[in-house]
Write a structure and sequence with these properties.
elongated, Helicase, Ruva Protein, domain 3, binds magnesium ion, three-stranded antiparallel beta sheet, Rossmann fold, binds adenosine-5'-triphosphate, 3 domains
Length: 391
């Protein structure tokens, strides 16, 4: 057998790869308890036979809109078992982007034998309604990425779905959940739609913060990896890197890439050097940012990079010592304490390092904990070394 295939199936760290697929649905949503509670409040009374509810969920890419709405709706259906017969349909309007395609999709989800063509949208809406009434069912309809449909085909379908029971005896046919990345979604609707949706039924998801992103990565690590293979320090670094965008996919992606690097090296645990910012998603440091630095600023940064290749953070005290080692290596006299601090500040302002102040356990004054978020310390190191040689 070819040697390069040896590691496949070895699973030194990874035991369930599917956990890292973006289509995989986690058993629990983490870090969004308040939002779930708010969403639930929009569905109070849904157990009543004539009731339909509405909700609009907005948030940036990777803020958990899809997973939150689908998981919530599934759990809601389970909760209502025996009280009301609910059927759930999720349509991604990026894949079904015209009114007729969306309606066809809903109709076939209720009845797989529904003919594919030959009906107007008005006729399909009535077929959907008749079908639900005949089976005594209530439909929770999620229109995901609904902004794509609206941009392409107007908001007429939303209006018609909201009015599906108007002037009819039987009410409560459809509950509607609209999901959109576009925060200005409501501005695209005419007032008749806005008033039917209700301004209090809007849930805006914020980008995830570092703590939430750590929780998301931790959940995947616990469910997909061998115990003890991913330490808290690793998760902390992933949280920090992905907090730049607040996108949950980024934290999952960085974790998976780190695992791959560790396994490629034949290790059974991820080490701090395995965790690197995603090449495609995180804004990396421009070469010109190194070019504008003075010689000593570069040397301060070089010392920091060397340590951060191996550790997640470095204290300002250590950074000073590392800077002095670099000065020795390049045969130049190190600058004094005040100048060192000034350089540290400049590097921070330039966005090259991040610092957090902590009370020092020993000695006097403030200690800062330094990290690099926007770049891989290894890459930055070689860029600075090249620049120092040129000098
Ligand atoms: N709170 C969470 N708990 C666990 N996993 C999460 C959470 N939020 C998001 N994820 C995971 O992150 C990934 C992205 O989430 P999701 O697809 O729901 O984002 P989205 O807001 O719909 O993104 P888009 O705008 O691109 O449609 C999915 O794999 C999802 O399972
Ligand atoms: Mg989505």
């Amino acid at each position: 057998m070819a040697e390069y295939l040896d590691r496949i199936g070895a699973g030194k760290i990874l035991i369930k790869k599917e956990v890292f697929s973006f289509d995989w649905t986690p058993p629990e949503i983490v870090g969004r308890n308040d939002e779930l509670r708010e969403l639930a409040s929009m569905f109070y009374g849904i157990e009543g036979q004539n009731i339909s509810c509405k909700s609009v969920i907005m948030g940036p890419v990777g803020s958990g809109k899809t997973v939150l709405t689908t998981t919530f709706s599934k759990k809601l259906c389970e909760k209502l078992e025996g009280l009301r017969d609910i059927t759930l349909t999720h349509v991604n309007c990026r894949n079904y982007s015209s009114t007729i395609q969306v309606l066809q999709r809903i109709a076939t989800s209720l009845d797989p034998r529904h003919p594919e063509r030959g009906f107007s949208s008005g006729e399909i809406i009535q077929t959907i309604r008749r079908n639900l009434l005949a089976h005594g069912k209530h439909l929770i309809l999620i229109l995901d990425e609904v902004d794509v449909l609206i941009r392409k085909d107007s908001s007429d379908l939303i209006y018609r779905l909201l009015r599906i029971d108007e002037g009819r005896e039987e009410k409560g046919t459809i509950s509607l959940i609209l999901v959109s990345q576009e925060l200005g979604l409501m501005g695209r609707f005419e007032s008749a739609i806005v008033s039917r949706l209700g301004m209090s039924n809007i849930l805006k998801l914020q980008p995830y913060n570092k703590k939430q992103l750590i929780e998301i990565a931790k959940q995947r690590a616990n469910l997909g990896c061998r115990k003890g293979s991913i330490s808290e320090e690793i998760l902390e670094k992933i949280g920090r890197y992905s907090a730049v965008t607040g996108d949950a996919r980024l934290s999952i992606e960085i974790l998976e890439a780190s695992i791959r690097r560790a396994e490629m090296e034949g290790r059974d645990e991820v080490i701090i050097e395995d965790v690197e910012p995603s090449e495609f998603r995180v804004t990396t440091i421009e070469p010109s940012q190194v070019d504008v630095l003075s010689k000593h600023q570069r040397m301060v940064l070089l010392g920091i990079c060397r340590r951060l290749k191996k550790k997640d953070t470095v204290s300002s005290g250590d950074a000073k010592k590392l800077y002095m080692v670099v000065c020795e290596e390049y045969g130049v006299k190190a600058k004094g304490h005040t100048t060192f601090w000034k350089h540290l500040k400049t590097l921070e302002i330039q966005g090259l390092i991040d610092t957090k102040t902590a009370n020092s356990a020993t000695g006097r004054g403030r200690t800062q904990h330094i990290t690099i978020t926007n770049a891989s310390p290894g890459e930055l190191e070689s860029r600075i070394e090249k620049a120092l040689i040129r000098q």
